[in-house]
Amino acid sequence: MKGFLRGSATAMITPFTKDGVDFESFRQMAEYQINAGTDAFVVLGTTGEPATMSETERADLVKCAVETAKGRAKIVVGAGSNSTQRAVQNAREAEKLGADAILCVTPYYNKCTQAGLIAYYGAICGSVDIPVIAYNVPSRTGVTILPETAEALSEMKNFAGIKDAGGNMALTLETLRRVRGKCDVYSGDDLLDLPILCAGGAAVISVVSNLAPQAVKELTSAVFSEQLDRAVRISDALLPLAKACFCEVNPIPVKEGMNLLGFRAGVPRAPLTPLEEEHRAILSEAMKAFGLEVRP
Questions:
Q1: pLDDT tens, 238-281?
Q2: Against a cut of 0.85, is the pTM above it?
Q3: How many CB atoms lie within 10 A of CB 74?
Q4: How confident is the model at residue 1 (pLDDT cuts 50, 70, 90)?
Q5: Confidence grade of residue 81 (pLDDT, cut at 50, 70, 90)
Q6: H/E element, 264
């Protein structure tokens, strides 16, 4: 299926206090995104640290996102697992809670074959009626969705597309060629947003848009309206900020970036650690250079 998402989606962080999820802070961050024109929130993606959250926390956060958005932005919920059975359960739960779509990372640690990927996504797609987005991020999972596998997945009725964070433009271009007209490809790598969009990507699922949602939305709009010079200028401005957001493992830097903007983002949950001071200085300078107001 094509056309579920077009534009900019933000891979939302999850703000924590020592007692649990800070839902009020999440609502404030969601309004920040909506006011900037963000088209969708991705909740419980890698950036949201779902691996360190309880089932109750995850369910309550999805409810909070759906209630806050009130149809003003689509809600995509992370549901992947290294267990097909668990991923199916997660997907069904997300659908019940009001998700507009689910995002399922490839199985991690249990490194399956390409046939295993087709069976995994087939089981998930067959368990829900809402759109399903695959997440290709081999740097974290050790598994790559190959272009011919993407083509097979595109035949599934509610398979909406692939979030591509593989970092290999040759594979991305071949995937785009094979699925064009059948499903969509979304950039999952902020450093490659511009080329993926220009090659036919339908949207970006962005980390840096936590900090600069309006600019990321404007980048997608400029490409879609064929204002390439403008898109290049926006991309050139965003790239240093995006690089700073990955000076340590995601989401450590972007959470501190939200703190620097004045939001209550808290700190990552263990085993992730707070941003090191030298990297905090790098991030702060990149934010200032981009024109963001950094709180002391």
A1: 999 999 999 999 999 999 999 999 999 999 999 999 999 999 99
A2: yes
A3: 19
A4: very high
A5: very high
A6: none
Q: Is 267 contained in some domain?
A: no
Rounded CA-CA distance 176/103 in Å is: 19
- Structural domain harbouring 196: 7-228
From 10, 128, 139, select the one nearest 79 (Cα to Cα).
128
Q: Mean of the per-residue pLDDT values for the chain?
A: 97
Q: Count up the domains in the chain and report the number.
A: 1
Pairwise CA distance, residues 188 & 164, whole Å: 5
3-class DSSP assignment, residue 130: coil
Cβ atoms 68, 32 nearer than 8 A: no
Q: Is-contact 14 53, C-beta < 8 A?
A: yes
Residue 58 maps to a domain:
yes
Which residues form the catalytic set?
135, 163
Give pLDDT tens digits for 132-183.
999 999 999 999 999 999 999 999 999 999 999 999 999 999 999 999 999 9
C-alpha to C-alpha distances, 29 to 17, 172, 265, 285, 290, nearest whole angstrom: 15, 31, 9, 22, 19
User: What pLDDT was estimated at residue 296?
Assistant: 76
Q: Is residue 34 part of a domain?
A: yes
Q: What is the CATH number of the domain that holds 28?
A: 3.20.20.70
Contact yes or no for 99/66 (Cβ under 8 A): yes
Cβ–Cβ under 8 Å, residues 276 and 247 = no
Please give the structure tokens belonging to residue 99.
């998700």
- Classify 189 as helix, strand or coil: coil
Amino acid at 280: R
- Is the residue at 270 inside a domain? no
